[in-house]
Design goal:
four-stranded antiparallel beta sheet; two-stranded parallel sheet; alpha+beta; Leucine-rich Repeat Variant
Length: 386
Amino acid sequence: MSTLTQQIQARAHKLGFELIGITPAAESETIGRYRQWIENGYAGKMGYLERHLPLKTDVRQLLAEAKSVISLAMNYYTLDPPKALAEDPARGQISRYAWGDDYHDIIRQRLSELVDFIKQSAEIELQTRVCVDTAPIIEREYAQKAGIGWIGKNTNLIHWRSGSWYFLAEVLVSVALASDIPPLRGSCGTCTRCIEACPTDAIVEPNLLDSRRCISYLTIELKERIPRALRSKMGNLIYGCDICQEVCPWNSKAVPTNEPAFQPRAGNFAPTLLSLISMTQQEFSRRFKGSPIKRAKRRGFLRNVVVAIGNWREQRAVPALKKALTDDESLVRSHAAWALGQIGGTAVERILQTQLAVETEQEVVDEIQDALSDIEYLSRRNKNDA
């Protein structure tokens, strides 16, 4: 292995990247499968994935001079939430990658430092490009080829020694770097825990995810109403989902990161649902400044919160849902109507009828009418049972 490659690896480790691998810049070997995945509709409303398809065929579409791809992984595992908090339906669960600061900002800065180091060490003029999650590159393919893990049945990259709690990133460079790619260790074997544990059956088959059913997609990427059939399966998950990683046996080996930026912020670790539902735009912006959660925007985040409250089915949440039923955002109002329908009762029925008389958005009207039908059905069933 060349001295430059060793220097890059050593520097990357110092910058907080636990796993590093290098491969030649080349065409994607999985682009056909990826294209078929999109054609099957599994990307849902993420239209940008199809628009970026031509760029993903070859990393040299991103940097024509690219000779090597440096694949890197940064650990974000911090701790496991206490079972009592995780299972408390009065609290919302946020995916652990979003507990701390926005990883895009952290990793982009570290990659910039790594690029500066490479340019100084190479002693030749280099062209580079850094990629952090949002870049049009099939990063798990290059990471697997570089030997830093395999793509598991839950579609996450898994490392045999430390699991899958990693952010992935890449640096494209215009120099051919020597690489010593180790043979892959570990595999999913016959284990299907992730498939069995997914509450929405989003993992269609091993290594095939239907995003339209994935709770991470539903709570972050989807900007519209969440399909009614999936809401009750979401439990108290209000931003992302870690279930398929939490049940993975390989993650029992995970070691907590030392990165301060990924430690849980106050309020991001199992917050009470009723502390979130009344946030104004100003409060949302202030609370989640510099956090990945801002990606969902206030309207999407509160939509998720009221769904979790609906799954909680607690009468003391009715006043907060009544207020949400008059929110400026129709997306929040429509899901608040559904949540009220899950709680039911005569008082809730009156609240919905009152709002129905003044509501002007058809999607909210439809949700209110469906909620009233749910309450009527439950009332009839309870009478029959009695």
